[in-house]
Amino acid sequence: MNTAGKREWSVISEGDKNRTAAKEKINQEELTITTRHTRDPSTSAVLEKDQRGFTGQNVRERHYLETRSLNQRLDSREGHTLDHSLDMACDDGSHEGTCKDRDRDWHHYSKSSGRSGRSRRSSRSRKQRDRRRRRSHSRHKSPSRRSHHRRSRKRSRSVEDDDEGHLIYHSGDMLRARYEIVCTLGEGAFGKVVECIDHSNDGARVALKIIKNIDRYREAAMSEVEVLEQLKTLDSDKKYACVHMLDWFDYHGHVCIAFELLGLSTYDFLKENNFQPFPIEHIRHMAYQIIRAVRFLHKNKLTHTDLKPENILFIDSDYDMEYNREMKRDERTLKNPDIKIVDFGNATYDHEHHTSVVSTRHYRAPEVILDLGWDHSCDVWSVGCILIEYYLGSTLFQTHDSKEHLAMMERVLGPIPTNLLEKTRKRRYVHRCKLDWDAHSSSGRYVRKHCKPLKHYMASKGDDHQQLFDLIGRMMEYDPAKRLSLEQALRHPFFSCYYKRSSSKSSSSSSKKD
């Protein structure tokens, strides 16, 4: 990529600063969305071929759906943040019920909405709704907003945006006389993703991400395009499991990015399979591909910063169905566990400004929570959290509160090292060089009930299980300096079958040359 190739890695350009500012604005908007108890559907949701209905959840499954949060990116001054509010609520005995029941107050908004009811509404009702919305807001608009609205109306009688900046479209619409819209796959703060027919490529189906016609989202999207173009150049042979951008263009102020159409996210497959864990052989296969892909990013001075099951998609989510007589239910087994990593909207180069808070809550590394700064190793922690989730079928750290999150880590992994607590700028989390935590409070009881030492989660004492848990434990080392690198992870005994296979291939090829 010419643009990326000319970048000075040691200097943050004005463009970088603008894009960073745009990302931070978007992060703050996502925090606002979090406080309304919704979840942000992002790119990970949206590259789907198919979305099937999901019913029959039991209490544990509903709890899991409701307690997963969207990406909570908190301002560095946390005086008025959600974390602080929950801390106060949990420490107040009169609000003990708030803590006990807070998991029921967090509603899951599926990131993989697929062919949602929203996308099936009729064209006429959608137009009427949009007209009513425009009329009701027109008298309250500032002069500048009214003039912007007039300009957007003038650009084309057939192209309009709604009040949130989304492109108004309908099934059958054509973009650039090439992409025919089929249906909506997902929606988020950034915009929407639609399934399209690419008429310039023999009618191939693609996923088209349509960014809102708002400056900060356009800037963030152009940053993602820049990353995707460089990845495409660096991985032209598609050796690594990173999604490839096929095309991008500007459509009346909307940045549009075309991707290959993929299957369900790993999270959505778990959800549709009643949160049954993946078989350990599938975990091994997915883990190896994830680690190779993220190592590729790190080698090219890039940190993903938002790795999670929603951002890991199956290439093809077809499955075989079998009836489990013991559990009295149908269970799905993937035919092909190949995956790809998506959503590079928050990917950050080593030379760029690092925002203080990154990652979705449940996959956030301790150094990020403690505001100690972060580097590539925060991705390693996230991968460890993902692997244990694949093994259990549910997320390990089910919380929306930073101090409670740290307490859960201590319950699972042991005490946080004193040297990390001494260096943190989050002094309200620490008392006398220890985590300031009341184990007898309602939050303390919640942590004790829902968490246990890591090895206690092991379902079998077989070698495969022990090796997997050893790998996870090394990836979830508190101290980033001691945490396993992804290069080291690929040489872990859990992946011995892969490096034995590769060494045998190399030896056979060398013998042929001889």
UniProtKB/TrEMBL annotation:
Record-listed ATP binding positions: K209
Ranges of biased composition (kind: Polar residues): 29-45
Amino acid composition bias (Basic residues), ranges on this chain: 117-156
Record flagged with keyword Phosphoprotein: yes
Domain (Protein kinase) ranges: 179-495
Biased composition (Basic and acidic residues): 1-28, 92-108
Kinase recorded as keyword: yes
One GO term describing the cellular component: nucleus
Entry EC number(s): 2.7.12.1
Any single GO BP term: regulation of RNA splicing
Annotated InterPro entries: CLK_kinases (IPR051175), Kinase-like_dom_sf (IPR011009), Prot_kinase_dom (IPR000719), Protein_kinase_ATP_BS (IPR017441), Ser/Thr_kinase_AS (IPR008271)
UniProt-annotated stretches for the region Disordered: 1-58, 92-163
GO molecular-function terms, A-Z: ATP binding; protein serine/threonine kinase activity; protein serine/threonine/tyrosine kinase activity; protein tyrosine kinase activity
Subcellular location as annotated: Nucleus
Matches recorded under Pfam families: Pkinase
Enzyme class: transferase
Keywords from the named record: ATP-binding, Kinase, Nucleotide-binding, Nucleus, Phosphoprotein, Serine/threonine-protein kinase, Transferase, Tyrosine-protein kinase
Family: Belongs to the protein kinase superfamily. CMGC Ser/Thr protein kinase family. Lammer subfamily.
Name recorded for this polypeptide: dual-specificity kinase
